[in-house]
């Protein structure tokens, strides 16, 4: 047995303390080095982002712009009287006197959604099985390639009504309903119908096997799943499924969203030679004649969010541009000039964007789109940093009159066109900065705004709408030329889509169901002109 004498013990204790102190010192130095490295990494990242966009602080002054909807989102309310409110409201809404403006009325009851018009009433189970209760089935036409149908009606309606903040009744405008007094336009969307829901879907570049125009259709939630798969990310848990027309492997995935660009006219104008840069994409890929069908309602923020999360509105939580929350007793407006930049505040917990699903270390960019959670670079992150600083967001942008890619005839004649041109030119400058040197992002998402405003202004096929498409095509060409010059085409796959379609309104087709409901003494509030919440409590609640 080895004995330890007292003086040896003291010596060992001193030695142990010295070793512990030395170890603590090394640990502190290592911790300090790690802290310094984290600060350096963060600084390097900021410098890299600044280099991508050109001029650090100048980014915040010149690249930010907030899409500002031209519609009023103030709810229409009427106190009325209680009773069997849904039955009373349906009696008014389904009367033949309103069939020129009311296409459908939809609601949920138990495990089924109901769809009715003035000529019939049916139910739809989640799997699409229909039961006709009276008359005809209002959404019998499900063929996604027809413009007079209601493709994927059951799954789209069930997705909306899965959210407790969905309306008691969703009223769908007829395709020709014109309602300028409520903020309507000559070009409209929002419907369950195919024409207002059909966005383009085009795949081009590395790994794309399809060629030409294919006779099929997908859904907007499939955009998210397709982007995820192509970028090497998981799409598990998404409502959408990848479109199996391209295989992963490209180093760079690019999603282009041309807001409000209708699929049919985009393809027709491409075939006619009016969109040469879309034609460049199509020459190395394919497009779906049926496009990507938007979730319901087929409005902007709902479907931007669907495209970048791969789930429907009942799961991601943004169910309309404006809606009512019975639990809080408040109106929710995620799509306005005051809230657009923080739209992700309303994303339901657990909902992830494609950016958040990317493999660790993958760099991503979200240009001019508020659905930016998890993106390495984001325009709207810059806007959020600017909020409250007094910096002008739009006034600091270069004038549209100086933009060689903007159709000056419409810039001069339409303020929304001029504004959209400014926003989209800033988007091009950001994307150019992200791609002009070094390694571009693994995933780039680029939102184009002008196409929506131009189609609202004149309706699909109008001179101003087609000018908006040509301007977007010209900006696309600037980026494609850069990608080609840098030799990156073979490493890049592109997905071009939109958030909804568009349909021409008829200025002679006017009317207002709210007036009829008010005259019938029904208490309600109408959010975003189509989401009806019934009852004296909601009618008397504040905006």
The proportion of residues in beta strands is 15-25%
When the domains are counted, the total is 2
Enter the CATH topology name of the largest domain. Alkaline Phosphatase, subunit A
Helix content: 25-40%
CATH-defined architecture of the largest domain: 3-Layer(aba) Sandwich
- Which structural category fits the helices and strands? alpha/beta
Please state the average pLDDT score. Answer: 88
Task: Report how far apart the termini are.
Answer: 86 Å
Unreliable spans are 1-17, 36-48, 50-70
Query: What's the arrangement of strands in the largest beta sheet?
Result: 1-22-23-6-2-3-4-5
Question: Could you explain the architecture of this structure?
Answer:
With 543 residues, this protein is an alpha/beta fold. It folds into 2 domains: 59-69 and 196-504, Alkaline Phosphatase, subunit A (3-Layer(aba) Sandwich), CATH 3.40.720; 76-192 and 506-540, no CATH class. Helices cover 37% and strands 17% of the residues. It has 18 helices and 23 strands. The chain has an 8-stranded antiparallel beta sheet with strand order 1-22-23-6-2-3-4-5, sandwiched between helices. It has an 8-stranded mixed beta sheet with strand order 10-13-9-20-12-19-17-18, sandwiched between helices. A 3-stranded mixed beta sheet has the order 8-14-11. Helix 1 crosses helix 14 (415-435) and helix 14 (415-435) packs antiparallel against helix 15 (450-458). The longest helix has 48 residues, at 6-53. The N and C termini lie far apart (86 Å). Residues 1-17, 36-48 and 50-70 have low confidence and may be disordered.
């Amino acid at each position: 047995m080895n004995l330890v004498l007292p003086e040896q013990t003291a010596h060992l204790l001193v030695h142990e303390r010295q070793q512990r102190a030395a170890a603590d010192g090394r640990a502190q130095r290592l911790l300090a080095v790690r802290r310094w490295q984290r600060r350096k990494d963060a600084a390097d990242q900021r410098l890299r982002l600044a280099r991508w966009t050109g001029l650090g602080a100048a980014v915040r002054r010149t690249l930010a712009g907030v899409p500002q909807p031209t519609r009023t989102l103030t709810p229409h309310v009427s106190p009325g009287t209680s009773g069997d409110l849904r039955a009373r409201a349906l009696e008014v809404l389904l009367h033949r006197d309103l069939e020129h403006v009311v296409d459908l009325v939809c609601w949920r009851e138990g495990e089924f959604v109901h769809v009715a018009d003035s000529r019939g009433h049916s139910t739809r189970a989640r799997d699409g099985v229909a039961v006709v209760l009276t008359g005809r089935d209002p959404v019998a036409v499900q063929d996604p390639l027809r413009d007079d149908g209601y493709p994927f009606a059951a799954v789209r309606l069930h997705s909306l009504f899965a959210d407790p903040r969905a309306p008691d009744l969703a009223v769908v405008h007829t395709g020709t309903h014109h309602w300028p007094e409520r903020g309507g336009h000559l070009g409209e969307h929002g419907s369950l119908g195919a024409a207002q829901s059909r966005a383009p879907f085009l795949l081009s570049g590395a790994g794309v096997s399809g060629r030409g125009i294919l006779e099929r259709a997908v859904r907007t939630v499939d955009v998210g799943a397709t982007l995820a798969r192509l970028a090497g990310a998981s799409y598990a848990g998404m409502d959408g499924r990848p479109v199996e027309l391209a295989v992963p492997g490209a180093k760079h995935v690019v999603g282009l969203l041309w807001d409000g660009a209708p699929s049919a006219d985009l393809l027709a104008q491409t075939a006619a030679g009016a969109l040469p840069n879309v034609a460049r994409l199509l020459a190395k890929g394919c497009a779906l004649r049926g496009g990507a069908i938007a979730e319901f309602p087929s409005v902007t923020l709902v479907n931007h969010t669907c495209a970048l999360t791969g789930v429907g509105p009942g799961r991601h939580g943004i169910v309309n541009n404006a809606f009512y929350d019975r639990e809080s007793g408040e109106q929710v407006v995620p799509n306005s000039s005051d809230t657009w930049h923080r739209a992700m505040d309303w994303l339901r917990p657990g909902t992830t964007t494609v950016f958040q699903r990317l493999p660790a270390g993958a760099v991503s960019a979200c240009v001019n789109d508020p659905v930016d959670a998890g993106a390495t670079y984001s325009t709207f992150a810059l806007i959020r940093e600017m909020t409250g600083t007094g910096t002008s967001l739009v006034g600091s942008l270069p004038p549209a009159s100086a933009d060689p890619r903007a159709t000056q005839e419409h810039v001069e004649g339409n303020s929304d066109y001029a504004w959209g041109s400014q926003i989209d030119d800033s988007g091009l400058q950001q994307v150019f900065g992200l791609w002009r040197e070094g390694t571009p992002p693994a995933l780039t998402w680029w939102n184009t705004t002008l196409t929506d405003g131009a189609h609202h202004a004149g309706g699909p096929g109008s001179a101003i709408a087609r000018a908006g498409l040509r301007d977007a095509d010209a900006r696309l060409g600037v980026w494609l030329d850069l990608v080609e010059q840098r030799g990156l085409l073979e490493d890049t796959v592109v997905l071009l889509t939109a958030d909804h379609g568009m349909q021409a309104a008829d200025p002679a087709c006017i009317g207002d169901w709210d007036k009829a409901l008010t005259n019938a003494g029904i208490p309600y509030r109408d959010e975003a002109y189509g989401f009806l919440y019934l009852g004296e409590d909601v009618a008397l609640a504040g905006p």
